[in-house]
Amino acid sequence: MNDHDVVIVGGGAAGLTLAHRLAGVNHPGGAPVRVALLEPPLGPHTPPPRTWCFWEPDGGDWDDLLAARWRRLTVVGPDGASRTAPADPFVYKMLRSTDLESRVRSGFGGRVEPVPLLVEGVRDGADGAVVEGVMPDGSPARLTASWVFDSRPPRPLPPGRTLLFQHFRGWFVRTPGDAFDPGAAVLMDFRPPQPENAVAFAYVLPLSAREALVEYTEFGPAPLATAEYDRLLAAHCARLGLAGFEVTAAEQGVIPMTDAPLRPRAGRRVFRIGTAGGATRPSTGYTFSGVLRQTAAVARALEHGRVPVPPVPHRRRHLAMDAVLLRALATGRVRGAEFFTRLLAPDRLGDVLAFLDGGTRLPRELALGLRTPVGPMSLTALDHLWYSARTALTRDRGPARPPTASPGARRRPAR
What we know:
Helices cover about 25% and strands about 30% of the residues. The chain is α/β, with parallel strands linked by helices. The chain folds into 3 domains: about 5-55 and about 95-155 and about 260-305, FAD/NAD(P)-binding domain (3-Layer(bba) Sandwich), CATH 3.50.50; about 165-260, Alpha-Beta Plaits; about 315-395.
């Protein structure tokens, strides 16, 4: 018999929300699902505190934990023109990892066993999976489970045609006087200098009239050095007219934006969740909403006795559209700042947010597409279709085989 029904590897957004959902789930026969949450011991492998932003209608499961919420969003174009619009029917929300972790752990109720383990390997099997790692005292440990959900980032990433990185650094700043509008968040400000074949922007998420998260972000081929982020952040704070402010904390990260297929199923008994399982929206880097849908589906499957394969929480056509956008940015066919400024027009802001969350139909998506540079995007779409068809044909043919001699052919003597 396996040690647990479910082992979750990693305590980030995906691992924590899955543990939270499974803490109240029983098997069809009524027995509780036995869960272990594996996280590395405190030390160099412990991830720093971070924030997760997402949008959804009011009344979400985590609303009482939110650090802030905004009903109005601002987009600032490269020319400095600022446009603010309601996010209706959505609310843009910020959740701190420390608050989510505290809530999740307090609700385990003996149903989830936290295990401080640095995981070194996961082995699939017909009747269960084996997770091996090292305990805080250096001793080896081995756990077995009916199902393993691994949220660790895939290394290396699976091959794809286009790979960009959303890389960012943010300062939590406190000003001596009122400097921010707590009711409106700056979603994208494209006034920072624009890199070649990439897009750079800043955003401002006010926590109060005197506190905000000011973050610099690029969609580009490689991260920057911390000193360069700090230089760009200082320049943007000056652009905002901030003076005498204090940096109270910082956050930094890298999110892959790729058209490579990130498959949730890694074996008969092993699955990937979160970014590793395709929860990240390739065109934006947003992950939290996808994680919520993915973990809810896993909990429902276990409750009904089904194989708990996590779904990819994005429609195929949306992933195809994202692949086209990534290719257009990477090749320089479109300039990212102008593209997003036109797309995020105030009269269609809610529609764009709905599309990015996977909640729109094709006619609305085509209408949104007309707001983008139609010529370059159409050319890139045709290029993507040709590449996809050629790739599928090559895959169907299989690997090339060396020619074989016919039975009656004469062989040349070796030289």
